[in-house]
Every structure is written in structure tokens, then in C-alpha cells.
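Re: the request from the purification team.
They wanted to know what the chain is likely to look like in 3D before they choose a buffer screen. I agreed to run a prediction and write the result into the notebook, where they can find it.
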Amino acid sequence: MRRLFTYALAVVGTFGVLGVGLGLAGNFTLSFFIEQFVDPGTNPLDVTQVALMFLVVIVIIYSTGPIASVVAGVVIGQVLPDREGAASVVVGISAFLGFYLFVALSLFFTFSVLSEYGALSGGGGPLDPAGLVTLTVQVSLPVGLVGLVSAYITSRVSEGEKAAAVPAPEEPTETENDESIQ
């Protein structure tokens, strides 16, 4: 069996990969909206469609954390049947920490497209980026808790290796088959 540290790294790594993917998706989407709706020399966040899409990207980033945490909890809970405590601690802490990596990478790629078009230099915009730090701390707590609880429940009800311990039904012998035909 693998060490618990390996499972923790897998959860944090998955959050990191998810952050890159979601950040790039937000980057490409915002870039498309900026190219479609913004005149050259205009702050992209002054255009309603771009500002709204920026807010949608931010909401999606923060809403994805608990969902990813549940998935991690279910997977690790199945891998560690009858080890509820270990599964819960591994996923709870890993999801909590992985969420910070996830948000940092997602927001880095999302804000990089805005800085490329000069949206962050003039100030203004739909929200203050520094306010996202408080939001990240607030959302990281339920992300860790959701992962902890989902891992506990899944580990508790998962049969895992116990299914292999159940003996297979015996095949009837040749004489039993002959008697059942008559």
C-alpha cells in the first residue's frame, strides 16, 4: 500500500493541474471577449460584457474548489477503506492546501490576460484583486471540510479490499448437475 503522503501529493497536484486548466480557460475566454468587444486603447474592464465575463470566471474558479474536494474525497475514501481517520485527514488537509495552489494558478492566468491589455494599470474594474485574498481564505475552509467529510463517508461505506475476501460460490459437481436434470 502507498504511503499517505503520496495520496496527499496526488490531491494537491490535482488541484494544481485543475488551476492551470481553469486559469487558461478563463484566459482564453477573456481574451476572446476583449478582442470582440473592446476598442483599442480602451480599458477592457470598462466594457460591460468583458467585466461580466471576468466576474463569471471568478465565480467559476471559487465554485470549483468544493466540487474538486468532493471528488478527491470519494477517490481517496475508496482507496483507503476502513481507514476513515486517515482518509479524512489526508483529503481535508490536502484539499485545504491544494485550493490555495489552485486559486493562485487560476487567478494568475486570468489576471495575466487583463494585464496584457492594460486593464489593471489604470485601476477601477468590477472588483479589487486584494479582496480576493480574504475570499480565498474564507472558501478554503469549506473546501477542506467538504473533502474531509466526503473522504470519511466514502471510506466508511467503501468495501474496497473486503470484496475480494468474500468466497466465490462453489461450482456444482457433475453428479449434482445430473440430479437436477431428472
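For the purification team: The mean pLDDT is 85.
Please add any questions underneath this entry.
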